[in-house]
Amino acid sequence: QHKFWETQPVGQFKDVGNSSLPEGPIEQPTPLSEVKQEPYNLPNLYEWTICDINSDEICNEVYVLLTNNYVEDDDNLFRFNYSKEFLRWGLRPPGYFKSWHIGVRVKASKKLVAFITAIPVKMRVRDEVVKMAEVNFLCVHKKLRSKRLAPVMIKEVTRRIHLENIWQAAYTAGVFLPTPVTTCQYWHRTLNPKKLIDVGFSRLGDRMTMSRAIKLYKLPNSTSTPGLRKMELRDVPAVTQLLKDYLSRFVVAPIFDDDEVEHWLLPQENVIESYVVESLESHEITDFFSFYTLPSSILNNQNYSTLKAAYTFYNVSTNTSLLQLIQDALIIAKQNDFDVFNALDIMENEPFVKELKFGRGDGQLYYYLYNYRLRSPLKPSELGLVML
Ligand code: YNC
Ligand code: MG
Fold first, then answer.
1. Which stretches does DSSP call E strand in the chain?
2. pLDDT at 363
3. Amino acid 116: pLDDT
4. How far is the CA of 113 from the centre of ligand 1 (A)?
5. How far is the CA of 358 from the centre of ligand 1 (A)?
6. pLDDT in the model for residue 231
7. Is residue 232's pLDDT more than 90?
8. Chain-wide mean pLDDT for the chain?
9. What is the domain extent for residue 70?
10. Is the beta carbon of 199 within 6 A of some atom in ligand 1?
11. Is the same domain home to 246 and 375?
């Protein structure tokens, strides 16, 4: 069934519902000297490479590989189009390892044909803090699919993570594997109904006309929260504290220090936007919201080539209701010409997606942990982790 995953330290299907198994690591770490020192073997035509994304040329090669071969929706209408600036943001957090940005090239031509990455993260699972890797951007060129290259890439990234004395990982995928920590749903808030219908992202339902859709999704011209402004460098300590308190509510969530908050949340054009609410009286930062920019290529449409999508990231509400904060996020996204605003049903997102006219997406996003067993699966609302 799962020839590769059956051999890995992950929750196995046969153990689902067996709550007598202990929570925590499945395998114990081995001494670093016992970690395999040489890379795994690739088929003979291929070689490993470290992709130095600081280099414009190499960052561009990664960008082109992903643009043409990364994740598509079930109907093959759209493909993620992560920008180069986004990849640099996503792959260079504080303490990142260059050796975890792994490529595969054709020996003869040097063409980049596969990619996988990891970044370090401190993760809390209940009251344990565990150093983990987040694995992402696994991609094999369309012409090299189904040749069992992916398992070799996963083993190689695992080996390099082990070499840094890290033994656990988190990852998400649209495919169902042994065994999800939780199963999430995407929700989509239409901002530009005409375009979304034109490109096949959404359809006019029964008794819905274009003009009624435009009216339904219309938003106020300006935000409503007093004291709302773009996050600045000086806000980092306050935002770190808000996020720390907030994320402590979830069963699984990352722990971010000031440097990480600066990296992950300070606004960068076309990558990440964050807004804080500064109290007009006390000047304290009481709330914030953030969303990242991830366009999708529109495959085979005459009129449009990209869908501009915003994805909600981390939000914290103390004085302002989450509903009002996200309504303001929608307004800002609309002002910035986004076509759609997306959210997963994790954290406290479910009530606002229902209230603010998001529509439920098709397809699931599964969250996984490597070498860490949970007693039982979580509800999406128990998860405090967003992956890119
Ligand atoms: C996937 N997405 O089940 P079995 S998400 C994990 N995540 O193994 P082959 C996957 N495993 O079932 P292909 C996977 N997709 O026989 C497939 N697999 O045990 C498993 N798509 O390998 C699959 N990107 O090479 C099977 O398949 C085995 O040529 C088959 O390559 C797969 O980034 C892929 O969706 C996904 O580029 C590379 O289809 C290819 O099809 C592709 O014959 C489009 O592989 C892009 C796409 C995936 C996005 C992502 C997260 C990846 C997580 C990987 C697991 C990390 C584990 C933790 C490691 C660190 C541990 C520490 C410490
Ligand atoms: Mg393959």
1. 46-50, 78-80, 101-106, 112-125, 128-140, 168-173, 182-190, 228-230, 252-254, 272-278, 285-293, 296-298, 306-307, 309-312, 340-344, 359-370
2. 85
3. 99
4. 15
5. 30
6. 99
7. yes
8. 98
9. 5-174
10. no
11. yes
Q: 197 and 270 in one domain?
A: yes
The conformation of residue 357, written as its DSSP 8-state character, comes to T
The number of domains in the chain is: 2
At CA 384, angle to CA 126 and CA 19, rounded to 5?
A: 40
Atom of ligand 1 nearest to the CA of 4: 19
The ipTM of this complex is 0.99
Which CATH number fits the domain that encloses residue 226? 3.40.630.170
The CATH code of the domain that includes 81 is 3.40.630.30
Residue 153 tokens read as 């890439």
Residue 388 counted as domain residue? no
- Please tell me the number of the ligand nearest to residue 140's CA: 1
- How much distance in Å is there from the Cα of 151 to the middle of ligand 1? 7
Determine the Cα–Cα distance for residues 334 and 338; give it in Å rounded to an integer: 5
- The residues annotated as belonging to the active site are 388
Q: Is the CB of 149 under 6 A from ligand 1?
A: yes
Q: Which of 71, 138, 145, 155 to mutate to test the pocket of ligand 1 (most atoms within 8 A of CB)?
A: 138
Distance CA 140, CA 103 (A): 10
pLDDT tens string 96-155: 999 999 999 999 999 999 999 999 999 999 999 999 999 999 999 999 999 999 999 999
Same domain, 156 and 222: no
Does residue 266 contact residue 233 with C-beta atoms inside 8 Å? Answer: yes
- Residue 106 pairs in a beta bridge with 46
Q: Is the CB of 116 within 6 Å of ligand 1? A: no
115 lines ligand 1 (CB under 6 A): no
The tokens for 192 are 């530009």
The pair of three-digit structure tokens given for residue 368, joined into one six-digit string: 């996984």
Pair (189, 209) in one structural domain: yes
136 Cβ inside 6 Å of ligand 1 = yes
Pocket test for ligand 1, best of 70, 73, 140, 299 (most atoms within 8 A of CB): 140
Residue-wise pLDDT for 262-298, tens only, equals 999 999 999 999 999 999 999 999 999 999 999 999 9
